[in-house]
Design goal:
mainly alpha
Length: 186
């Protein structure tokens, strides 16, 4: 865990909805879809951590790491670790941009009481964007010089991103379950 792990839960607005509120399977499909996307983001980040660790331990050569990265689902046609990270960062940013531009305005209009939560989620998207930029910066440095300090910097940036992103995703899933069940994505 990084020293900058999560947001202070006491500062996050909540919708005060009972966690055990029952919805139909069709209604639950909206929040399940969101969780599926989030689970994919979590899994890809975990795999990226694993590749960095394998490079650090000398288990993978650059060529072998490229082959592993090539097999990863978001990576498809890119041939470097940096390109994979760039794809991952782009996917996260695209996901957040879609939420900010489409899903959140829809929910705000359909259920005005969601506004404080949606505002907070949008603020967190900005922070996560900056963390993604930091991951990119450390990867550029790693390309220039592969040493322990550069690997440490990448791992620290990934850990901070992972901690913050994980906290954000859990908060979003918890708070938007009901509004998504009631109103869908659009």
């Amino acid at each position: 865990m990084s020293s900058d792990t999560t947001w202070d839960e006491s500062t996050r607005p909540t919708l005060d909805e009972a966690a055990d509120t029952a919805y139909s399977a069709a209604q639950e499909a909206f929040s399940r879809h969101l969780v599926d996307i989030h689970d994919h983001l979590r899994g890809e980040l975990t795999r990226l951590h694993g590749l960095i660790e394998e490079v650090r331990r000398g288990v993978l050569t650059a060529g072998a790491a490229r082959s592993e990265v090539h097999a990863m689902s978001l990576r498809q046609n890119n041939w470097t670790l940096g390109a994979y990270c760039q794809s991952y960062c782009g996917f996260v940013n695209g996901h957040h941009s879609l939420e900010d531009a489409s899903v959140f305005p829809h929910l705000r209009l359909a259920e005005p009481a969601t506004a404080p939560v949606l505002d907070r989620l949008s603020e967190e998207h900005v922070v996560i964007h900056h963390l993604l930029d930091e991951v990119d910066r450390t990867l550029v440095a790693l390309v220039r010089q592969t040493d322990e300090a550069a690997l440490d910097a990448v791992e620290d940036a990934l850990q901070t991103l992972g901690d913050r992103l994980g906290s954000h995703l859990a908060y979003e899933e918890r708070e938007l379950r009901g509004p998504l069940a009631r109103h869908g994505f659009y």
